[in-house]
Amino acid sequence: MSIAEVDQRPHFDPRAFRDVMGHYPTGVVVVSAMVNETPVGMVVGTFSSVSLEPPLVAFMPMTTSSTYPKLREADHVCISVFAHDQMQACRSLASKDPEKFDKVGWTLSAWGAPMIDGAVAHIHGRITEEVEAGDHYITLVSVDDLAVDRGVTPLLFFQGGYGGFSTTGLSAHVDESLISAVRLAEAARPQLDELAQRFSCSAAALVQISSLDQTIGATSYGGSTDADERIGVRIPLIPPLGEAAVAWSPDQVTAWLGRIFPQDEAVLTYYREALTRVREQGYAVSRINHDPAGYDELNEALAEWAGAELTPARDRAVRTTIAQSRQYFGCALDEVDTNIDLASVVVPVFAPEAGEPTNSGLVIRLGNLPSGVDAATVREWATALQEAAAEVSRTLAGPAAKDYRRYTAAGLRSA
Ligand SMILES: Cc1cc2nc3c(=O)[nH]c(=O)nc-3n(C[C@H](O)[C@H](O)[C@H](O)COP(=O)(O)O)c2cc1C
């Protein structure tokens, strides 16, 4: 049966087709060529090895693609397999921007086709055959030469999002970033114990372990609090979360604000003002206000984020819930405010010997606090936290200097 004879099923649901196919991941390549001395190329997920004898690979361009007819006319094409860290290059080349090749590094191959710098592998060949298949072609490329130029893991595409490959083999490796975070957080141990006892609450030290998240590195419980804050739990640095962790680092603020989607100017202004308030008062509070149910929803989303590698679809759902919880954060406390229910008070530990106050990567947080308090009580907690943070900062310059050096040398915050 030829492809043209495949029967059209009645009541066929295209959404179901997309949804089901979305459960199958692909790698990502760019097929490129020089046309009239101009580089052209299209990003495809539909790349596959076809035959060894003779050597053939294939990809499937849309029949409506404006780039494909140009590739078809070229003598040679080069297929570059994107590496896990080339998401930006992939995004640029998947656009219709005529100057997109100016935004990525590339070199001309011996056959005169553009090879993307930093790609895992390059496959050089000629388009030799094409089969029309519904709204796509199946295009065969006869391979002339090929090489792995950078033996790193490839970029993957799954459910509309990019990711990387990780093994599920038996050799579980120890997470170095977590170890360095726990060592750093232990510098705050005496202060956490003291604060938790004094205010009958939970106290935790949170350490930034990548540009995108922090982890709970140390905890202490006072009084009868039944708090359950687990070491190693990841907390994303996505607005509104993590204000105190980023507010005193301009680079981190830019990255943090960059995670707001869409980049709505009113929302950006809201967050810039919230950060200014946090810097002015020296601490960040999250206030449960009159909607504890909404706050529970946020906590569920955070538990999901912390618990496992999320699929892109769940990741989007969790990020949406986080983004919708901004009313709880960056709050100003009015002088006359009473009956306040706080989820947390967070203050930064400033980098030792930095001159200007600068985030060190470490913050300390009080949680499970008594409810229905007045603004003066909140300020008392915040002042005690700030004094404790200043002591921790001195510890980072003194007894814990080695751990702090190791932590900064690991470059986790700019990862
Ligand atoms: C991850 C990813 C996979 C893609 N896979 C294909 C594909 O297999 N076939 C295709 O025709 N377009 C694919 N596209 C779309 C093209 O890269 C690109 O957007 C399109 O070719 C641009 O339109 P143009 O060819 O008219 O310039 C993919 C895009 C992305 C981001």
Give the structure's gist in a few sentences.
By secondary structure, this protein is α+β, with helices and mostly antiparallel strands. It contains 12 helices and 18 strands.
Descriptive keywords:
415 residues, Pnp Oxidase, Chain A, Beta-Lactamase, 2 domains, seven-stranded antiparallel sheet, six-stranded antiparallel sheet, binds flavin mononucleotide
- Provide a count of the helices: 12
Number of strands: 18
Lateral strand order in the biggest sheet: 3-2-6-9-10-5-4
| Biggest sheet overview | 7 strands, antiparallel
Bound molecules: flavin mononucleotide
User: What name is given to the CATH topology of the largest domain?
Assistant: Beta-Lactamase
Tell me the strand percentage band. 25-35%
Order of helices and strands: HEEEEEHEHEEEEEEHHEEEHHHEHHEEHH
Overall outline:
elongated
Q: Look at the structure and give the CATH class of the largest domain.
A: Alpha Beta
Mean pLDDT: 90
- How many whole angstroms does the radius of gyration measure? 27 Å
Helix share of residues? 25-40%
Describe the structure.
- The strands form four sheets. This protein has a seven-stranded antiparallel beta sheet with strand order 3-2-6-9-10-5-4. A six-stranded antiparallel beta sheet has the order 15-14-13-18-17-16.
- The relative contact order is 0.11.
- It is α+β, with helices and mostly antiparallel strands and 415 residues long.
- A hairpin with a 2-residue loop joins strand 11 (156-158) and strand 12.
- It is built from twelve helices and 18 strands.
- Helix 4 (176-185) runs antiparallel to helix 12 and helix 5 packs antiparallel against helix 11 (375-397).
- The protein has two domains: 26-163, Electron Transport, Fmn-binding Protein, Chain A (Pnp Oxidase, Chain A, Roll), CATH 2.30.110.10; 176-414, Beta-Lactamase, CATH 3.30.450.40.
- The mean pLDDT is 90.
- Bound molecules: flavin mononucleotide.
- The site of flavin mononucleotide (FMN) has 15 residues, from strand 3.
